[in-house]
Structures are given as C-alpha cells and as structure tokens.
C-alpha cells in the first residue's frame, strides 16, 4: 500500500475557524497514525480577499494546536502556470474544449430554459476551423449520460446524475485557472491519497472526479465530514461565541485539551473520552466519524481541558502558561514567580479547567508585598483576626516548616482563640493571597516558604 498523504487547504481570507482546526486535526491524526505525510496548502487564488496576515493567523493557529506539517507550505497562486498547463493538456486529450460563448449568449440560453437548464455550449464539438478570433474559456467535456458515483468514507455512496452537471470552466478567458481545476492539479501533484474535508465540498467531489478521470489520474479516497453546529443545533456563527482557534488560546484552554475535545467532536472510538495525542493517532480512523453535525459544548470542552491540565507535566504546563501570557500581551513571569509556580504546580492543577483559573489559584505565588486584597478578603482581617495573626508570626519563627507541624501550630491557635479552623483560614488566605478562594493554607505556606509567610502575616497583622 502506498504512503498515506493528507492535506489541509485553507483560504487565507480570515482567521483559522474552529471547524477548519478540526478538519486539519483529522487530516493530521489520519496521516500521523499511519506513518504518512500531512501537507499544508494555502488556497490564495482569490487575490482580492487573501492576505498575508490571514495566512500568518492560520499558521499560528495550527502551531498552537500542535499540528506540524511536512515540507514547505504550498501557495496555490504560485502554481497558476501549472494549472493552465493541465487545462491545455485536457484540450490536447480531447477532454476539454474552447468555448467562445459570451455572457449574453449564456444568459439567453438560460432564459429560454426557465433559468434552470444546465448550459450546453454550441462549441463542445465544433470544428476548430470555425473558431473566431475572440476571447474564450476552456471547458471540461463532462459526460452527459449516466452518473458520477462518490464512494465516501463518511457519507457512504453518493450518486450525481451527469445530466445535472455542466461543462465547467477550468481556465478563464484571462488565462487564470478556476478553483475546481487548481484543487485537483495540486492534490495530484502533491501526491494526496486521502481528501478529508467538510461536507460542504461533497458536491465538488463529483466535478473534481471528472477532472481526475479526464487526466487519467488516480482518484483519492474521499471523506466529507459534517460541519460543527452550535449548542442550539444551528450552523456555528458569531452568536455562539468564539469561532477562531486563536480565540480559544486567548481564553486559556490548553492545546492538548483542545486537541482531545476536537478529536471527539464528531468522532468516537468505543468509550474513549480522555486521551493523549499519541493515543488518538493510534485510534483515529475514518469509520469512527459520524454523519450528523457535531454540537459545540463548552461544558464538555472545560471538563476535557481540566483533565488535561491535571495530567500535564508541570514544566510543560508552565511553558504553555507562559505562551498564553505572551499571546495575551501580559507581562512574562519573573524568575521568582516561575520558580514558585513550578514548586506549587502540584496544588494548582487540581480542578482548574482553564489557564486563567489556574493563574487565579496561583495568585499567592505571583503577588509581591504589599499584598493587594479584594473586598471580601480585606473584610476577613478584623481586629480579632489580626491579633491571632500577630501571635502566629511568633509561633511560626522556629517551626520546621513541614505540613504536620504547621497543622499542629495552626490547629492549636484556632483552639486557643475559641474558633473553628475554617474561621482562622479566612484571615490567613487574606494575608497570604489577598483572596478568599485559594489553595489550602498549608500548601501556600509550604510553597512560598517561612520568611515570606511570616512577612505576609506580619504585614496583615499591622
């Protein structure tokens, strides 16, 4: 069996859509799981709408998702001469013809057939000696009888009646190729064996199959995947929230969690819910893709991302946090903050579903004195609480700074004050983090160490 080659071919007219991200992911997983190649082509033939900024955004989105591609990025526009060469080769083969029909003549034909008929060019079988000295397009000579059958790995057998498909233009009168021709030529030249894309391209597969057949080229395996819908079952749009992959990075979803969630969005493998990318590569196949549109579910996304944050290696997670801060344009971590975050990662990862949630939990490791307190934590520092903190600073001076001894000292202080430990914990949280919701008091004290703990308690007591 030949090597599997897949491709992702976005148009650079905007950001990388979440649906495009999933399509790229499916192509990447299918190729990588079979030792194949995953190629990237930018379909930039629409010169008015294509921008370098959009191309850069697409590459950033793919890089954040962790989808590496093989070889150089291919520009479709740069290959326009090759596309034109194939159109002329089709002329030579007799599978295409020059059409001199004007726009007015085509409109008149349609008007005479109630506007619904497939245009039938009078030049299809014309003698070249009758050709006028006038502009022409090159049209493919499509079969007019029978059917074109697409054996789709997701949609099943899909049949298109040939009398419903016109002789499509492959080369315009200005010598530029049409999208339908360019896609086929590029896929053939790049050795693409499997075309995995959105099911909005299913009708294109019939026309593109005809181009393959006109050139005697092998037709790739087709797999047209359903689009992603919003939670309400309607086509995904701005009203559902974030649409661009980079928006999800900016919201602080970890890339590994995003990959896992998008893999499961419209694809299933037994009971597998939470898995690594290596596991996904081993499991992913086309037969697991469903035919119905998948629905975006933010609660499920958060659950999956929370699992991946908990599973992550501490250093790798910290690296992702730093990339997130950079993407948001926020200050980088200082050396001290970096060291404390790494030291405290064991108590920060639990139950955090996004990176901003984790950073909020890590506030105690990120702040410096004087600690800024929110309203609720400031209210916890009343006269009685400050007195207890003052007394505690003296008792903690000579503690061994192990959890068991810290527990003993704090429990004794609460008993002596005649309060439960929960009542003591609130002013301690206020003193150490300036918040009422934090990791455990003991974890914070162990991470920031004796000197900083005592300094913060003294500050709050005063």
Automatic annotation (TrEMBL):
Localization of this protein: Cytoplasm
Motif ('KMSKS' region): 235-239
Keywords, sorted A to Z: Aminoacyl-tRNA synthetase, ATP-binding, Cytoplasm, Ligase, Nucleotide-binding, Protein biosynthesis
Annotated Pfam families: Anticodon_2, tRNA-synt_1c
Gene3D superfamilies registered for this protein in UniProt: 1.10.10.350, HUPs
Motif ('HIGH' region): 10-20
Coiled coil: none
Domain Aminoacyl-tRNA synthetase class I anticodon-binding residues, every copy: 320-460
EC numbers for this chain: 6.1.1.17
InterPro entries in alphabetical order: aa-tRNA-synth_I_cd-bd, aa-tRNA-synth_I_codon-bd_sub2, aa-tRNA-synth_I_CS, aa_tRNA-synth_I_cd-bd_sf, Glu-tRNA-ligase_bac/mito, Glu/Gln-tRNA-synth, Glu/Gln-tRNA-synth_Ib_cat-dom, GluQ/Sye
Main location: cytoplasm
Gene Ontology MF: a single term: ATP binding
Catalytic activities: tRNA(Glu) + L-glutamate + ATP = L-glutamyl-tRNA(Glu) + AMP + diphosphate
GO cellular component, one term: cytosol
Binding locations of ATP: 238
A biological-process GO annotation: glutamyl-tRNA aminoacylation
Superkingdom assignment: Bacteria
Residues in Glutamyl/glutaminyl-tRNA synthetase class Ib catalytic domain copies: 3-302
Chain's role: Catalyzes the attachment of glutamate to tRNA(Glu) in a two-step reaction: glutamate is first activated by ATP to form Glu-AMP and then transferred to the acceptor end of tRNA(Glu).
Self-association and partners: Monomer.
Sequence similarity: Belongs to the class-I aminoacyl-tRNA synthetase family. Glutamate--tRNA ligase type 1 subfamily.
Protein name according to UniProt: Glutamate--tRNA ligase
Lineage start: Bacteria, Pseudomonadati, Pseudomonadota, Alphaproteobacteria, Rhodobacterales
Gene name in the database record: gltX
């Amino acid at each position: 069996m030949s090597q599997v080659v897949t491709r992702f071919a976005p148009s650079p007219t905007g950001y990388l859509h979440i649906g495009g991200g999933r399509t790229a992911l499916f192509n990447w997983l299918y190729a990588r799981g079979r030792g194949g190649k995953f190629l990237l082509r930018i379909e930039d033939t629409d010169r008015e709408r294509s921008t370098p900024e959009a191309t850069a955004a697409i590459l950033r989105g793919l890089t954040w998702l962790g989808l590496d591609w093989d070889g150089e990025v291919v520009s479709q526009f740069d290959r326009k001469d090759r596309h034109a060469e194939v159109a002329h080769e089709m002329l030579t083969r007799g599978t295409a013809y020059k059409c001199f029909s004007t726009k007015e003549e085509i409109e008149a034909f349609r008007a005479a057939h109630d506007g619904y008929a497939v245009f039938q060019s009078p030049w299809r079988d014309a003698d070249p000696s009758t050709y006028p000295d006038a502009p022409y397009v090159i049209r493919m000579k499509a079969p007019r009888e029978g059917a074109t059958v697409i054996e789709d790995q997701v949609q099943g057998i899909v049949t298109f009646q040939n009398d419903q498909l016109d002789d499509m233009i492959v080369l315009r009168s200005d010598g530029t190729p049409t999208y339908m021709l360019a896609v086929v030529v590029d896929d053939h030249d790049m050795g693409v064996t499997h075309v995995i894309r959105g099911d909005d391209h299913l009708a294109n597969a019939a026309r593109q199959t005809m181009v393959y057949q006109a050139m005697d080229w092998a037709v790739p395996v087709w797999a047209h995947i359903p689009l992603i819908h919003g939670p309400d079952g309607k086509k995904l749009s701005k009203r559902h929230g974030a649409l661009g992959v980079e928006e999800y990075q900016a919201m602080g979803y970890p890339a590994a969690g995003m990959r896992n969630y998008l893999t499961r969005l419209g694809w299933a493998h037994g009971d597998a819910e939470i898995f690594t990318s290596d596991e996904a590569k081993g499991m992913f196949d086309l037969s697991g893709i469903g035919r119905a549109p998948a629905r975006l579910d933010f609660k499920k996304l958060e659950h999956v991302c929370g699992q991946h944050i908990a599973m992550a290696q501490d250093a790798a997670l910290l690296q992702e946090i730093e990339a997130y801060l950079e993407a948001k344009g926020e200050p980088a971590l200082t050396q001290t903050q970096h060291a404390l975050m790494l030291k405290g990662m064991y108590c920060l990862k639990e139950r955090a579903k996004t990176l901003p949630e984790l950073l909020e939990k890590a506030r105690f490791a990120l702040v410096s004195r004087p600690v800024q307190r929110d309203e609720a934590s400031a209210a916890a520092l009343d006269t009685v609480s400050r007195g207890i903190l003052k007394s505690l600073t003296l008792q903690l001076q000579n503690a061994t700074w192990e959890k068991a001894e810290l527990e003993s000292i704090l429990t004794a202080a609460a008993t002596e004050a005649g309060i439960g430990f929960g009542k003591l914990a609130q002013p301690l949280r206020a003193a150490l983090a300036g918040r009422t919701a934090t990791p455990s008091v003991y974890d914070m004290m162990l991470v920031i160490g004796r000197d900083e703990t005592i300094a913060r308690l003294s500050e709050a007591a005063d």
